[in-house]
# Entry
Amino acid sequence: MHAVPLFQVDAFTSKAFQGNPAAVCLLETPAPDLWMQQVAAEMNLAETAFLTPDPAGLRLRWMTPTTEVDLCGHATIATVQVLRELHATSELPDWIAPHWKQSCIQFQSRSGILTAEATANGIVLDFPATAPTAVTPPDALTAALQIRPEQLLWCGQSRFDLLLRLDSAATIRQLQPDLRLLAELPVRGVIVTALGDAADHDFISRFFAPASGVPEDPVTGSAHCALAPFWQPHFGRNTLFGFQASSRGGHVRMDLQGDRVRLTGQAVTVFRGSLLV
# Structure
């Protein structure tokens, strides 16, 4: 295989080495699924994004080190950041350039058509809202989270994940779940959330997805597609600000618009190179 452009970008942050790192691979010719999964495992990040030509335009796919996922916010922001920088230096590949229109671009994906815009305030993604509905907590849930039953205030399930409201931001920050037990739950991952504890955010969250090969995701755009409709009734407004309290940390702005969520985040490219295999 000829050299393939490869980038690593920290998303949902304005500073390098914070936010959520993602690899971005630009594939002018579609590659076998096995090869892409091997690349994602080699990168060993929460997600690697693969951009390829598609009969309807451009197709964006995301893979963890072990599996392909249906939706990924931070790796999409990372992809748009790469395209914005390549456009600014007149390096945008010919097969991508016609689709970059006034700093906007559309991707075909396993979650439908996704639109993104590069603005002065960050990269804005138009994603489907995945509002959770209340469910009975799985029997092993509190043991997996290593919390007391009274610390769990609400349990729901979105399209992809369990969403749990806990009693405080302190509980969220101090959480040390049993990842082996979490991996046995029949969901992509587990979102934990509580009211915020600082002026720069409305709520706090963390996201664990050991069953998908991601013990803890630093900042998860797709989780905020569920968090926005969950918290909107509490605050009574459609614009919300979240902080994901991983060790790297990251901020996400959400604008809920019907059955869509506009996610805004910044990004920093850390390196660029080429895949040689």
About this structure: Residues 73-88 form the longest helix (16 residues). DSSP finds six helices and 18 strands in the chain. The chain has two domains: 4-128+264-275, 133-258. The helical segments are 33-43, 73-88, 141-145, 169-174, 179-182, 221-235.
